[in-house]
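Late entry, pyridoxal-5'-phosphate complex.
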Amino acid sequence: MDLPVYLDHAATTPVAPEVLEAMRPYFSEIYGNPSSIYSLGLAAREAVETVRETVARLLRASPEEIVFTSGGTESDNAAIRGAAEANREKGRHLLTTPIEHSAVLEPFSTLARQGFEVETLPVDGDGRVYPQEVARRLRPDTTLVSVMAANNEIGTVEPISEVGALCRAQGVLFHTDAVQAFGKLPLDVRAMQIDLLSLSAHKLYGPKGIGALYVRRGIGWTRFQEGGDQEKGRRGGTLNVPGIVGLGKAAEIAGGEMESEAARLRALRDRFLTRLEAEIPGARIFGSRTERLPNNIHFCVEGVEGESMLLALDAAGICASAGSACSAGSTEPSHVLLALGVSRELARGALRLTMGRQTTAESLDYTLETLAAIVCDLRALGRPPGR
Ligand code: PLP
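Prediction complete; structure with ligand written out below:
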């Protein structure tokens, strides 16, 4: 088994060799600006349009509904601010969940300061929204609902088809942050009645700094980034052609292996969770056991700090996360766990392991055995002398 054992694929993934190969010519040989009309520019443009078709096909969208962005954060900002502002005259009531990524929560906070009324939906103990609560809270002045497809910390998969149907029936726009779900779960924007969807390449073995936003044709949405007529006027700025090519290749591979890889990871995940509960006293699993991303493991061990486990795992060559990567280094317990009703003390013990292509049964066994020894050591350290 090779070290390090990388178990932080929800934070980011390595660029796949095929993705790097596909991108390489677009840095040096085919460097034209896709907006230029000479052949070097046209070659770049063709590559971009091919990726637009690939991404659209995976989402069951039309190519002209895909806008390339700099990643998940920009897509979320553009979706939420662009939809709220375009429909400001219709109404100012917006709905979201307390377990969203900060790329969603912060634009909503900004909108709240600008006079919008942002209401937070309740979630159950696994972090799932209740569709009936969405139905109950939709008002004539509601213009946008944003519910993530799958949570980045606990891996819970949300009932987005149900939420999409409720929103569409009321003429309310529905955005979903699918950054963690894209390439791992089947997504169909038509069947799921999604109006706006965010995705990012670096969670699926593509490069960092590139993503896309699906914007359903004909909806009220205004652009967020000004500065040029690129993307049919929907996002100013010279396109990141190598990044886009990388996104396309990564999406194509993920789409092709989605079913088999999900089944493989699900089996590894469930085996790990069963052993964890049986072999580590005080282990508590967070998130849904069934409605869960195939690669997500998230738990705490009562009385043991997540940060301490993380550091000890690192010393044994295992890369894990004590919550979400974006809040790494902060001692504040995760807002996601607090929203689930987990106590602050327990939430401080959270550890997230997210698997990927290189994860094997052997590397997970090593992780579990190492963790069991770490927990014993940390508990012994924490015990008062003489006991
Ligand atoms: N949304 C979710 C659910 C995420 O997990 C992330 C990344 O951690 C983002 C948005 C931000 O994406 P990016 O890193 O591409 O800006």
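The mean pLDDT is 95. Will revisit in the morning.
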